[in-house]
Amino acid sequence: MMTMVDLKGLKAKAVEAMESEGTLRVVVGMATCGQSAGARRVMDTLKKDVAELGLDNVKVAVTGCVGMCTYEPILEVLEPGKKKVTYIRMDPEKTARVVKEHLQGGKPVLDYTVGHDHAGNLKNLEDLQFYAKQERIVLRNCGAIDPENIHEYIARDGYAALRKSLLEMTPQTVIEEMKKSGLRGRGGAGFPTGLKWSFAAPNKADQKYIICNADEGDPGAFMDRSVLEGDPHAVLEAMAIGGYAIGASKGYIYVRAEYPVAVERLKIAIGQAQEMGLLGRNIFGSDFSFDVEIRLGAGAFVCGEETALIASIEGKRGMSRNKPPFPANKGLWGKPTIINNVETLANVAQIILKGADWFRSFGTEKSPGTKVFALGGKINNTGLVEVPMGITLREVIYDIGSGCPHGKAFKAVQTGGPSGGCITSADLDTPIDFDNLVAIGSMMGSGGMIVMDEDNCMVDIARFFLDFTVDESCGKCTPCREGTKRMLEILDRIVAGEGTMQDLENLEDLAENIRLTSLCALGQTAPNPVMSTMKHFRDEYLAHVQDKKCPAGVCKALLGYVITADCKGCTKCKRVCPVEAITGEVKQMHVIDQALCIRCGACFNVCSFNAIARN
Amino acid sequence: MENLRNFEQVCAILKEHDHNPNRLIAILQAVQDVYRYLPEEAMTFIATSLGIPPAKVFGVASFYAHFTLEPKGRYVVKVCDGTACHVKKSNDIAEALRKHLGLNPQSQTTPDMLFTLETVSCLGTCGLAPALVINNEVHGLQTPQSAVELVSEIQARETAVHA
Ligand SMILES: Cc1cc2nc3c(=O)[nH]c(=O)nc-3n(C[C@H](O)[C@H](O)[C@H](O)COP(=O)(O)O)c2cc1C
Ligand code: SF4
Ligand code: SF4
Ligand code: FES
Ligand code: FES
Predict the structure, then answer these.
(1) Residue A1 pLDDT > 70, yes or no?
(2) Could you tell me the pLDDT band of residue A118, with boundaries at 50, 70 and 90?
(3) From the centroid of its chain, how far is CA A83?
(4) Which CATH number does the domain A370-453 belong to among 3.10.20.600, 2.40.240.20, 3.40.50.300, 3.40.50.1000?
(5) A522 alpha carbon to ligand 2 midpoint, in Å?
(6) Are strands A337-341 and A209-214 parallel, antiparallel or unpaired?
């Protein structure tokens, strides 16, 4: 068993392997997102063709995601001393051409790159507007290194912060540095990380634990998945540093089971770190020992809440309990336990290496550093963006996200998931930080940012989130278990066109009640999406209740499609209907069978003659 | 289900987890991987082996959404209905698949045990919404039409095999 790891020597070797003269390093983004866009087929073709052509100087590697979902699958070619070439929206045929013309022939295939400037210089991802305002601390390795190869992590200073902590710092100075950095928890509540660690450190116990919360329950957030899939060692290293700081020799990572790729990469990473003595006994020859185990979630959102998460690791039903006692005093199996979110942890090694002052040079006074947002919904550049705190929502949505697709009008952006609220264009110039988002009626949450346009119905969105909380309430306390159900019933009536003005009042009363009397934050925040949409979009509620209309054309009960006399019989609608509800011969008027129609609007969108009417 | 009474695999799983009741969830997950659901007999057997009341095992199994007490189809189609997918009309995808497979929210598995249709909240590929996953393969940027095509392809393949 090797105890004293020669990190410097390893790093030099790893850098040499990645950047040696004359080699071409070809990476394919193989995070879940890349795979769902077809990256595996790209990888297969790449490997096969490179082998067939005997291109010995080409090194193929898997990498995590660079965060630009709309461009997946992405393949990049890196050559020492040359500008990186980015190929986007790849498929097997395109890949075959790149192998032949670029990897073998030395000439980049311009057609598949992200374009070039006026002088004809090839652009790559980093030249895009999408990246101009980003600052990558958490995501610095995602898309750059092979997450299944610990040497590539070491090449980028991996495990140097752990070494520094163990050999040059005491647990107290580690905590002091974290406190000074002002890092606040990225799991939602924004609690200062250093302070949290300082609660557990002085507790005397035969065993303490550090838990990484990788449950990522907010539906629409995927930053933690991306970090785990693209840079798993960053999380392991931080857990070890945290373990050293609070005196824990054991760590658990609680990952949701919907993330099989993340779990696989974590397993590989843990194995490699153990093999090299970076996890295990007497790390770097110190007397600190630390090991990590993975636990899979089983599909319960409430298990993201720390006390429910602990119950789940203990093999019980994941139910929240009252605090105090706080986990830092009495946590997993009654022992002092610290729980941190994936993204929070991904900052730690950088803070230790570069110092609190460096970290504080990003972001704002009260919310230093960056935040990763998952930009989704009706926005052109969907993806993961890491921006300094203090940037405005407008910059994120328009400069980075490039606005709503198809020229549709922006309506709102939802942050904070099922606990958060909607932000309208009136507040887009607010600088983003923990406190400002609360002030404008939403919250940071885990960083999901879902953009909605004129075609989204805000009553439907409120119903959607409530449906989610009703499903996910752990059932322990009545306001949350029963109250949210009552609210959902009311919303169900409203979207069905059966709501009354009294219903709107009742909604508000129930909301206030649930907020004040629920046991845990799930229940306390469950009414937020309803409250915030009622505040900003009361007219839409009124349209459903009084006029029995859904202005955005979403609520199916208030909606129907019919084909009018303008129909030219082009058959386009008939072909696009997913349930074969449309019949008609060429050049004759078509009809929709209302019993079969699922009101998806596909026909409405595709008709070139405006011959389909919606009511 | 032929080998239900034969708990060899369950025994192996229990042993792997040191018969540790704290690892109940991991044990149930492994057992469900084998049977594709949690047979009642298996749960009783697990309870006895771990020395805990069967009610505790059933309680845990019913609490977590991932555990299923009924057999599922060979292809499990999960349509994402997370926020990003919802605002891009994932409902229509689920609805089109339901119609195509003759299912409804109450009966989610086809009588031939080929397909189970479920919704799930977020697969983490929100950037390519709307998304669905068939067994372990995620498909992004779906439409009701493309989703029905994916399923039809599987149906065609299966009929070809059995013809
Ligand atoms: C209902 C509910 C769900 C939560 N889900 C998550 C989650 O998925 N991931 C997470 O990191 N924190 C989640 N949290 C917050 C955790 O309870 C906890 O505050 C956090 O993991 C602490 O880590 P941090 O200090 O690094 O942010 C959730 C809280 C509640 C009330
Ligand atoms: S508020 Fe909801 S989730 Fe939290 S303890 Fe009560 S019932 Fe459970
Ligand atoms: S709305 Fe959708 S289901 Fe109805 S007829 Fe048009 S395409 Fe078919
Ligand atoms: S490209 Fe990976 S998250 Fe979208
Ligand atoms: S909301 Fe569907 S993948 Fe995230």
Answers:
(1) no
(2) confident
(3) 29
(4) 3.10.20.600
(5) 6
(6) parallel
Judged by a CB distance cut-off of 8 A, whether residue A30 touches chain B is no
Task: Write the pLDDT tens digit of every residue in A233-273.
Answer: 999 999 999 999 999 999 999 999 989 999 999 999 999 99
Residue of A nearest to B67 (CA): A298
**In chain B, what are the domain boundaries?**
2-63, 75-162
Q: Does any CB of chain B come closer than 8 Å to the CB of residue A406?
A: no
CB within 8 Å of A201: residues ≥ 6 apart: A171, A172, A175, A245, A246, A247
Choosing among 3.40.30.10, 3.30.1490.20, 3.30.360.10, 3.40.190.10, the CATH entry for B75-162 is 3.40.30.10
A430-446: per-residue pLDDT in tens?
Answer: 999 999 999 999 999 99
Give distance in angstroms: CA of B53 to centre of ligand 5: 38
Task: Kindly give the residue spans of alpha helices, DSSP state H, lying in A473-561.
Answer: 478, 484-495, 501-517, 521-525, 528-536, 538-545
A contact test, residue of B93, B103, B125, B141 with most A CBs within 10 A: B125
Residues in chain B within 8 Å Cβ distance of A596: 99
**CATH 3.30.930.10 correct for A559-614:** no
Given an 8 Å threshold on Cβ–Cβ distance, is B29 in contact with A298? yes
Closest by alpha carbon to B158, among B94, B74, B100?
Answer: B74
Partnered with residue A253 across adjacent β-strands are: A212, A294
What band does A120 get if pLDDT is binned at 50, 70 and 90?
confident
Architecture of domain A15-131: 3-Layer(aba) Sandwich (3.40)
Contact residues for B133 (Cβ-Cβ < 8 A; gap 6+): B77, B78, B80, B120, B123, B139
What mean pLDDT do residues A134-142 have? 96
Residues from chain B contacting residue A296 (CB–CB below 8 Å): 25-26, 29
Q: Yes or no: is domain A150-360 CATH 3.40.50.2300?
A: no
Domain ranges of chain A: 15-131, 150-360, 370-453, 458-545, 559-614
Residues A271-284: tens digit of each pLDDT: 999 999 999 999 99
Query: What ligand is nearest to the CA atom of residue B86?
Result: 5
A with B: how many residue pairs have Cβ under 8 Å apart?
Answer: 164
pLDDT band of B4, cuts 50, 70, 90: low
Decide if B127 and A299 are in contact by the 8 Å CB cutoff: no
Atom 2 of ligand 1: nearest residue by CA position: A305
Q: What value, to the nearest 5°, has the Cα angle with vertex A547 and ends A544 and A550? A: 40
How many angstroms separate the CA atoms of A183 and A367, rounded? Answer: 7
Nearest CA in chain B to A227: B124
Q: Residues of B with CB below 8 A from A316's CB?
A: 60
The Cα of A533 is separated from the nearest Cα of chain B by a number of Å equal to 15
Closest residue, chain A, to B91 (C-alpha):
A600
d(CA A194, CA A182) in angstroms, rounded, equals 8
Give, using CA atoms, the residue closest to atom 4 of ligand 4. A69
Whole-structure pTM value: 0.91
Q: Does ligand 1 come within 6 angstroms of the Cβ of A521?
A: yes
Q: What does R_g of chain B's alpha carbons equal in angstroms?
A: 18
Return the CATH class of domain B2-63. Answer: mainly alpha
To probe the interface with B, which of A579, A582, A604, A606 has the most B CB atoms within 10 Å?
A579
Nearest-atom number in ligand 3 for the CA of A561 is 1
